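Write out the 3D structure for:
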Amino acid sequence: MDRDDIERTDFPAVRRGYDPAAVHDHLRKLADGFDALEREKASGGLAAGASEQVRTILEAAERGAEQLRAEADREAHEHVEQVETAAKDLMARLEALHQELDRLLEGLKGTAASLTGSLEALSRDVGTLGAGTTAGPAPAPAPAEAPSAPPAADGASRSGDEAGARLVALNMALEGTPRDATAAFLAEHYEVADLDALLDDVYASAGR
């Protein structure tokens, strides 16, 4: 129904009825009220639609903000976990390195102690050998009454103490005596089964 339907004037006329002018005036007022009601309804519909759109936008914005906060929290938590894991791995590596260094230091201490003992023993042996060598080789030359005989030519005066020969060779090597001179001295005064092997071992131990 619209305004034209309300204000229609094509009704059939009858006698002794209502005043047509009054009826028309009433219908015009009714049509005005109907128009006002339609305008208000239309205005209210637009406002309601706009309000609904705003509400939808706000709800979407809130959901987006909540999602962003959740993602930020998750990423922050994951980052913290990664940092903690990396820190734990680093601490474990440092602890393993510290233990390895402790083992190395203990090994070095043991090696140093062993070398110190070996050097002390070697020093005593060299001192004893030096004293014996100074007194021992003197009788080696041939007696004055038989100068033409080569000293110890038949090997009778040479010692069979191979350990003693090794100590003598070590002492001479440590003092810087050339290998050939040491070999000649040992060949003259000691019976050694394998002189070259003994000299190889001694000069290698002396670092020559």
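Residues 157-208 form one domain.
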